[in-house]
Amino acid sequence: MLVVGDANPDLVLRGDVRPRFGQVEQLLTGADLVLGGSGSITAAGCARLGLRTAMLAAVGDDVFGRVVRSELGERGVTLLEAESRGTPTGLSVILTPDGGEGRAILTLPGTIPLLRPADISDDLLGRTRHVHVSSLYLQPELADGLAGVFERAHKLGVTTSLDTNWDPSEQWSSIAEILAQTDVFLPNAAELLAITGAPAPEEAARSLGTTVVMKDGERGARAWWDGGECAAAGLAVEVVDTIGAGDSFNAGFLAARLGGRSIEESVRWAAVAGSLSTRAAGGTAAQATPADL
């Protein structure tokens, strides 16, 4: 399968992370430089679950780019690089206070917005059976032409899925056209309601005319498709870090579905994969294996 999207490191800082300006030195309890980006984490999860996985992303020629290349390579993901145009690799700094109550994310976009529809050629699409796109609204050029990319994919017999993540502008541009060409939409509840303006998830999902698999936080997952719906619980685990749980959820669903399992079983895989990923810092350290699921 092919994952298209954001590839960058996450610098995860824990402890006394609320800044106090004025040259006040604050002591942390932990720091990890890990593979980040919704696309990268999804790709790593898919590869761990046995899918032959490639990722298309723009990555710079710098130390953060080398981290991304190394981490994806170690996880069995083939990185296909779009032109970086001399731009530094993106970076997210994640501030997690003691006790884990909430977090703040500071992101340098860097190379993340550089992907263009033309980077996803028919030749590339012809060498996969499924294409998944992540973090759509961090990549405005890609968003503007993604409906056409997915239309080309369908003509080549390739299925499609999408996780928009949140749109910082809250405009959700081109989303109706894109979803008309999307086989599986993988939002969380807040994204689903924001996109549709509907008062409840079920009404929102039914209005979109495609399969919707919704991340439902501690409750697990819900899904709606033509002729059916289901829900699945997650697992109770000792949570260390929720970063990337939704991306591991995506990987669980895609691995199951592309492996020939029913939608109901695939939704169960997704809910459990998302839960298990929270057992360690960062988005990939505790991702599920086939045996786990």
General description of the model:
It is a single chain. The chain is α/β, with parallel strands linked by helices and 293 residues long. It has a single domain, classed as UDP-N-acetylmuramoyl-L-alanine:D-glutamate ligase, CATH 3.40.1190.20. The chain has 9 helices and 13 strands. The strands form 2 sheets. A 9-stranded mixed sheet has the order 5-4-1-8-9-10-11-12-13, with helices on both faces. Strand 11 and strand 12 form a beta hairpin. Helix 1 crosses helix 8 and helix 8 packs antiparallel against helix 9. The longest helix has 16 residues. It is globular. The model has no long low-confidence stretch (mean pLDDT 95).
Name its key features.
293 residues, alpha/beta, UDP-N-acetylmuramoyl-L-alanine:D-glutamate ligase, nine-stranded mixed β-sheet, four-stranded mixed β-sheet, 9 helices, 24% strand
